[in-house]
Amino acid sequence: MVKSKAKMWCLRKVGTRSHFSLSSALHQSQPRSFSYVADGERFDSCIHPTAVVHPNAVIGQGVSIGPFCSVSSSAKLGNGCQLHPGSHVFGSTELGDNCMLMTGAVVGDDYPGCTVIGSNNTIGYHAVIGVKCQDMKYKPEDECYLEVGHNNDIREHTSIHRSSKSTDRTVIGNANFIMGSCHIAHDCKIGNNNIFANNTLLAGHVEVEDYVHTAGATVVHQFCHLGSFSFLGGGSVVGLSFYLHGLESICLITREMIVMQLWKHATVKIIGSQHSAEVF
Fold this sequence. Notes:
- With 280 residues, this protein is mostly beta strands.
- It has helices at residues 5-14, 22-26, and strands at residues 32-38, 41-47, 52-53, 58-59, 64-65, 70-71, 76-77, 82-83, 88-89, 93-95, 100-101, 106-107, 113-117, 122-123, 128-131, 144-148, 153-154, 159-161, 170-172, 177-178, 183-184, 189-190, 195-196, 201-202, 207-208, 213-214, 219-220, 225-226, 231-232, 237-238, 243-244, 247-248, 250-253, 258-259, 268-271, 276-279.
- The protein has a domain at 5-193: Hexapeptide repeat proteins (UDP N-Acetylglucosamine Acyltransferase, domain 1, 3 Solenoid).
- It is built from 2 helices and 36 strands.
- Residues 1-23, 241-250 and 254-280 have low confidence and may be disordered.
C-alpha cells in the first residue's frame, strides 16, 4: 500500500457515500472507480455501486470489489485483491496482496481478535474463514486469532475457525491445498505444502507438519499430531480415543509413516505418564 496524497484522496473518495441506498445503487450505470499515481505508475481500483465499503476500511492498489460485497470498518485489503460478488470481509481482518475471495466467501468475524491472511491466497465459493470457534470453553469476550500464510488454495465450503482462547491461535502455513468442504477447527497448527482432500475434518488442537496428504473423508480426533510426509487413506479415522484415569489419550502418528485403513492391525502402546498413544 502506498502512503501518498493521491492514496489518501482515494480513501476519502471511497468514504464519501455515508448512506447506502440499494435502489439508487442499482440505478447507477457505472461502478465507483478511483485511480492514483505512485512511483510513476497509475493504479486503478473499482468498487461496484451495490458494494458496501466502510469509510474507515483501508483499500490497497488495484483492488476490485464486486456486487453486493461488504468490507468492515477495520478491514485492510492489500494490493490487487479481488472480491467476487457476494463475498464479505468482517471484523478486524487483513488480506495480503493478490488475495481472491470467490462468490459467497466470508472472511473474519466481529468478535474480539483478528484474522490475518497472507498474500496470494484464494478463498473458494462460500468458504467461511476466521469465524468464532465451536468450543464450549470459548468466552465471547476473549480475543481469538487466525493466521494464514501465503499461496494457499482454500476451496469451496471449507471452514477454518479462530482459536478458542487469547493465549493460542489457529495457524495455517504456506502453499497448502485445502479441497472442498474441509474443516479445520480451533487452535490447529498446519504446516506447509499439505494436501487435504474433500471432507477432511480436523478437530481442535490438531497439529499437522509438512507434506501431509489426507484422502477424502478423513477424520482426525482432537490433539492428534500428524508427522511430515504422512499419508491417510480415504475414510481413515485417526484418534484411537480411549481413556485412562479420566485423562484423554493423544494419538501420535510418527514422521514419514504411511497410514492406511488397517487400524485393526495397529499396535498401541501407552507412553509415559501423559498417556500418549503411538501408532506403529
